[in-house]
Amino acid sequence: MKPVEAGRCGRDARTVAVMLAGAAMLLGGLVNCGCQKRDNSPGTPVQSIRTASGIEMVLVPAGDFLMGNDRGEEDEKPAHRVHVGSFCMDKFEVTQKSFEGLMGTNPSKFKGPDKPVERVSWLAAVKYCNMRSLKEGLRPCYDLETMACNFDADGYRLPTEAEWEYACRAGSTTDYSFGNDPALLRDYGWFKDNSGETTNPVGEKRPNAWGLHDMHGNVSEWCNDFYAEDAYRRSGGDDPRGPATGEKRVLRGGNWRSDASQCRSSARSAETPGFADVCFGYETYGFRCARKTTPGVGKQGP
């Protein structure tokens, strides 16, 4: 066998390395744009990113899923096929530290910088979304006069109800992201049986298969959609955004004083956007942000 010249070998190795690096960059760009077809089965690893303001998000892959539950409450029926495009979602519920840092106030009953902010109305949540967008030089999604959401804007918003359930399920088809056994819920979320009648710091329980924490329990999370009990009878298709009008907005996930059934992936609840009666349950309402994928979303922030 003819020996390879050392100099040539070095040049060939460098050439191959450059080609591989270029291919990796191209592949990364496709992923960040949401253009690459991704496997959305349970256990599929997903990309975690850090935003310019230092908040961790998960890049949720596009895919189809069965939304709702034919064995659930009436407003969870019928189960129907939905396609959700890729998007980014906060890894944790918005904390009191993050909310106060942007809004200058902390409305929470159960104080703690790493606890989820609560006693937050839907209106307060979307104002936070806009402020977080402006802080990072992004285009805000919400018109604060009409409360309409511009889904084409690159800023932060509340997830749609379909996005929320899709992200919560993380490829699962069971009652919870971890299976059907409610006895396991205490490992994944804070609810009536283990919360100590209070919220708890985010991220202390096990995440779902896509790395999202506290999707079951702790605080109920606002979604962008208007609520309608019969919404699923006319829902489905690609990226549904709920009814065009309504009196209430959707809340998902259950909370620290919910029973296990209210923390199921498909369980729904709702409240008026500006609800302010703290005696009735306001201290159970929180949220997390979502954002559309763009070519720059996958870049690590400072």
Can you walk me through this structure?
It is built from 4 helices and 12 strands, in the order H-E-E-E-E-E-H-H-E-H-E-E-E-E-E-E. With 302 residues, the protein is an alpha+beta fold. The protein has 2 domains: 1-32; 39-292, paralog of FGE (formylglycine-generating enzyme) (Alpha-Beta Complex), CATH 3.90.1580.10. The chain has a 5-stranded antiparallel beta sheet. Strands 10-9-7-11 form a 4-stranded mixed beta sheet, covered by helices on one side. A 3-stranded mixed beta sheet has the order 3-4-8, with helices on one face. 43% of the residues are buried.
Overall mean pLDDT stands at 86
CATH topology of the largest domain: paralog of FGE (formylglycine-generating enzyme)
- Major sheet summary line: 5 strands, antiparallel
Reading the helices and strands in chain order gives HEEEEEHHEHEEEEEE
> What's the tally of helices?
4
Structurally, the number of domains stands at 2
Q: Which sequence of strands runs across the widest sheet? A: 1-2-5-12-6
- Radius of gyration over all CA atoms, rounded: 21 Å
- How many E-type strands? 12
CATH-level-2 architecture of the largest domain: Alpha-Beta Complex
Contiguous uncertain segments of 5+ residues: 1-39, 298-302
Task: Report the helical percentage.
Answer: 10-25%
Strand content: 15-25%
CATH class of the largest domain: Alpha Beta
Query: What structural class is derived from the secondary structure elements?
Result: alpha+beta
First and last CA, distance: 52 Å
Taken from the alpha-carbon principal axes, the silhouette is: globular
Name of the CATH superfamily of the largest domain:
paralog of FGE (formylglycine-generating enzyme)
